[in-house]
Write a structure and sequence with these properties.
Number of domains of chain A: 1
Number of domains of chain C: 2
Chains: A mainly alpha, B mainly alpha, C alpha/beta
Structural class of chain C: alpha/beta
Largest sheet of chain C: 9 strands, mixed
CATH architecture of chain A: Orthogonal Bundle
Largest sheet of chain A: 2 strands, antiparallel
Helix content of chain A: over 70%
Number of strands of chain C: 9
Oligomer: heterotrimer
CATH class of the largest domain in chain C: Alpha Beta
Strand content of chain A: under 5%
CATH superfamily of chain A: MetI-like
Shape of chain A: globular
Number of strands of chain A: 2
Number of helices of chain A: 14
Order of helices and strands of chain A: HHHEEHHHHHHHHHHH
CATH topology of chain A: MetI-like fold
Largest interface: A-B, 108 and 106 residues
Structural class of chain A: mainly alpha
Strand order of the largest sheet of chain A: 1-2
Order of helices and strands of chain C: HHEHEHEHHHEHHHEHHEHEEHHHHEHH
Amino acid sequence: MTDTLERETVTTGRSGRSGRAADRSAARVTRRRRRSLSGNDNLVGYLFVAPQVLGIVAFVLLPLVLIVYYSFHEWNVLANTFRFVGTENVERLFSDPKVAPVLGATGIFSVGLVIGNLSIALLLAVLLNRKARAITLFRTLFFSPVVVSLVAWTIVWGFLLQDDGGINGLLQLVGVEGPNWLREGPTAMLSVIVVQVFKNVGLNMILFLSALQGVPKEITEAAAIDGAGPFRTFGRITLPLISPMILLTTIITIVGSLQVFAQIAVLTQGGPGISTTVLVYYLFQQAFEFHRFGYGSTLALVLFVIVLILTVVQWQLRKRWVHYEN
Amino acid sequence: MKTRRRPALRALFYVGLSLLAIPFVFPTWWMITSSFKPIGEIFAFPPTLWPQHPTIQPYVDAFTEQPFLLQYWNSMYIAVVVTAATMLFSAMAGYAFARIRFPGVNALFLVVLVGLLVPSEVTIVPLFQIFNQLGLVNTHWPLLLVTTFGAPSVLATFIMRQYFVTLPVELEEAARLDGLGRAAIWWRIAMPLAKASLGAVAIFTFLHTWNLYLEPTVYLQSPELFTLPQALTRYTDAYGGQMWNVQLAAATMTAVPVLVVFVLAQRQFVEGLAQTGLKG
Amino acid sequence: MRMSAMKLSATAALAVSALVLSGCAAGASDDDTPVSLRMTVWTSNEDQLALFDEIADAYIADHPEVKSITFDPLDFESYTTTLTTQLAGGNPPDMAWVLENAAPDFVSSGALVPLDETLEATKGYDLDDLSPSATELWTDGDGQLAAYPFSTSPFVVFANDDLLAAAGQPTAAQLQADGRWNWESISEVGSAVNATTGKAGFVVRDFDYTQWDYLSTVWGGWGAEPWSKDGATCTMDSPEMVDAFTFLHDAAFTAKSMPGPGTAADFFAGEAAFTVTQISRASLLGESGIQNWELAPLPEGPDGDYSIVGQAGVGALAQAEHPEQSAEFIAYFTNPENSAKLAQYFPPARTSQLDAATLSAANPVLTEEQLGDIVVPAIENGEVRPSHTGSAEIQQEVRSALDALWVADADVEGTLGDVCAAIDPLLEQ
């Protein structure tokens, strides 16, 4: 009984999600009947997902449960004290004057990173979506930061962003007095975003390239014959066709943006003031540097809830703008 | 495209691209050239574009200061094993989540998706406790197990599922009429069609595993077990000062092979991905 | 250990996981079976690790109760973090190096077992040989030594005489001979160097406008302290401190004798006339390409002479399984004979070994004269870099509040008042 119900919701859920027409659902119903004849399908299903599901239970859910447990304790690792404190850490969260600016910085960083990363990745993908020998070279150049060591990457950018560094040297050539990038609030945030965008934009570029190459030429050419300009064709035809890829990269990039902190630690140490202290950096400080594992765990849960909400919203919104081919 | 027909426009296009490429390439360039500099020259300001006194000593030191070859092997075998295992298990899970309507499939998929949402900094302490209880600290097992089955593998399963969803129903039905079972359909029909997505999974997984830093730092204690990103930061002189030139030499040796593979494979990768495509 | 085992059983029960439970039976007590010891260190230097292994091998040969001793090199940058993770995960090392800024936390929390009894019981150890100024930081509330300060490294000034000559300025030796070896003159000379050559005047190494505690090598000359002796009251806003920071602010923004925020200058790449750093950095001189350089003590401030040292200690962790065996090994590791061996890398805390001859083995670029005149007195009289319980958070709060000071039109006194407002609640704890 529950079995049938489950399947029913699964089917409607799926057809709704992929936006397929009603006749598809009908086809599914027949298919379902046919499948129920072969009983070992379910068994294969469970066996196939077992490694992944068990892995998630052991290495994600179980640690999460432990994190929830820790967040009700005060845990000083050095003194080796572990004491139940009830909701003290939650209260601390609401009275901690740093939480609001930290969340603000996290929001600015993530929005900036996602917009910067996706728009540059898409631009590069469009520019490099052609056949020529030199194009291979350029794809490699734009991809190369992805594999360069973080150490080298941050050292060089630290150099370039100095007050008398390469960037300001270039600006001086055109007669502009550049700011002291890493020492002033707004430009420090801009700097860490840009450095992070350049480091990882190559991966999204490749994903967009593959999506663009999947767009049939005939469709864009037909649009051009109909008199649509290149921008109109791109906006009306190409973008909707690659929207599933945009969804995927957006989710990956948002989640990734909330987990960045090594570069911030090296370039600005969260400063000036706490203007570039993002949530993951703050929780790392609290847990590992200030020895407050309990409070760190509470902050970790906040981070988890934020990512969860964002992803659910994305997933819900996708029906509005993601175009699925049949 | 129009630019192809107009040489002037085309030249402009490439000049523009080259300018755009500078911020991407300069750090790589600096890393490689600086690895041939004596340590005093590395922090010379403004940075020198070419070593004034080139030396290969940093490359020699990289091997004598640490068991670098062994660490290279560690990184390589871990990345290869994790990549291969992830391709297999994510294809299995992705296929089942996309094509088999067993009871609880959606609930289980949601459980798996949670893994996509948890930063590794969040779970590192409880994970460390678990592996410590199992006696697996200072072994490669935590790296192999967590990256293959834990949070990092979810993206792979997600990509595979998104591909398998697009497989035409008719293919499976035809196979079923031919008397193939579920597992055989997966292996003989679905997998060969999923090569491009598997390629994407392979690249993502390999890069992620190759660049892991936090986990090896926490789990591994003996230099013989270190992986490359972890080993890179351990080149210090007798007084704890960083031997930057040696670090950069090691970093170059770490990055260049991956870049070379990318140059060789990128066309197949991009075009292969496009042919069948990650359609969502 | 017991504590964390308890905690884990609780969490395991809560999680209802066979995974965790399966490992719980492993904690057996072993009085007779030989034990394996592990020490976390932050050096990866082959020569140093070889020396440690040599000492450990000699110890194992005489001590059947110890099976092996390993030295785990952790990354310096994330050393305390990684050590903390190992503690949190229930896998503490038996022994650990501790940096001076983490010392109060480790000492006061009881994370380290007291060593006195073991050291006193060790034949020929001569505990009284340790200089009291060196052990102060490592002594707990009960007067017990919680860690052995194996490295006491003084801060000194290196001067680039090549650059000074190029700028037409007096060399460090001339300044000293003229009785002008003070901060005021250094800033004057540095300012002139900057104006004529575009290079930097003086650089407080590793400060970088973030690691402000390195500035104690400057404000010591003004007799300033960041907080009271008992650590309970902030004195970052004292008149001496305001004067010292006014000097530094002036040096950075008006005289331009110190590179401003966001501007790096590396002395050892020939980019600065003077640098304040630890003596051990002398090893960089060999590769620097600087032909003529001078080693000098810290310059005088308005308050006269002073010296500052950086320290590192080694202790046995109470949470580990074999604290007694660990303490015994530390007693051997740091006995007079081995201390002399370690002295080639780490300036010792033993007064009997604080002589130019012992130290010169360690610093081939320095002459016995330089060592005897400058380094030895600095170690004997040096004050340790500021530290406090909860130092990481204090470090972070001060760094964040001080950022307002590093702009051209800063209010020095007001900013230092803000610094105190920020850390007062932390100091009281």
